[in-house]
Amino acid sequence: MDYDVIIVGGGPAGLSAAVYARRANLKTAVIEKLTFGGIITTTDLIENYLGFPAISGADFGKAIQEHAMKYNPDMIQAEVKLVKDVDGGYEVQTDAGNFTTKTVIVASGAAPKKLGVPGESEYFGRGVSTCATCDGPFFAKKDVAVVGGGDSAVSEGLYLARLVNKIYLIHRRDRLRAEPILQQRFMSLSNVEFVWNSVVTKIEGDKKVNGVIVKNLLTGEEKELKVSAVFIYIGEVPQTGFVDVRKDDHGYIITDENMQTSKPGIFAAGDCRHSLTKQAIISAGEGALAAIAAQMYIEGRLKATQELANPSAPNRHSYGVRLGQTLRAYGKCFVLFAD
User: Fold this and answer.
1) Which is the most buried residue in 169, 238, 262, 272, by most CB within 10 A?
2) Is the entire prediction scored with pTM above 0.70?
3) Boundary-marking domain end, from 217, 232, 247
């Protein structure tokens, strides 16, 4: 085998797993198709990661990458196409070659969900964006739309509000879903107009975005908003198509409390995993736990979860996730919060 563990994904979950795997002297590779540090590197400001009262996503991503690289895992820039069963482990097939490993930790995260409306693909990169930090400065002093009502929409909206003339916040509900502290900050801004109970039905433009059509879900009325950009934050799609393990209806990987999947030797952590919520600090903890579990599996001290391995067994993870249980290893007690 080329490796003891291959980690697919270089975000908080993957890099945390790399630290723990290398400290256990496991031969480790981290495979990342985009940016080491993960999608969080595009976030303007992180305020809820313990130890960092306020840090930019770019600086946070750099810090966790440098921490992981201190332990010298192999860092491979490639896209994973398939995880295939082989004798004694797995073959991870990528666009940069194939690698064999005893275990796999899937920490591939999730990608922004698309609206699926006319004009979205046509004008992506020409006014349609999923990254305010990347593209916001191009629309300084202009009117823009932000679609969504969760943490991402509101936090990125707070960043945009410092740059643009006006924000139309378009949300299909009549209230925001973001953290209360973010809501308070956002709703106090003078250059934000809320477009409640509405969805975008079309993005218009002429070589670049110049407007959106929104439909009120209560009245059916449609209207045009003149904007130069549309920033979309309506959720995520897990990047898990390359691995054949049990998943929920949305494609998130189902694991037990030790991050084990339905296949022995394959673990999952972070935003690609079926869980109660998605936060960087939770992803990092899950990555650490997955690496410890992978080591115990290699050493023969961790058994596969038969319930997950049996597709006909009742799935107690379908509608909720057990975040409780205690893993004792090396005389230390790692505790996850119970639901």
Assistant:
1) 272
2) yes
3) 232
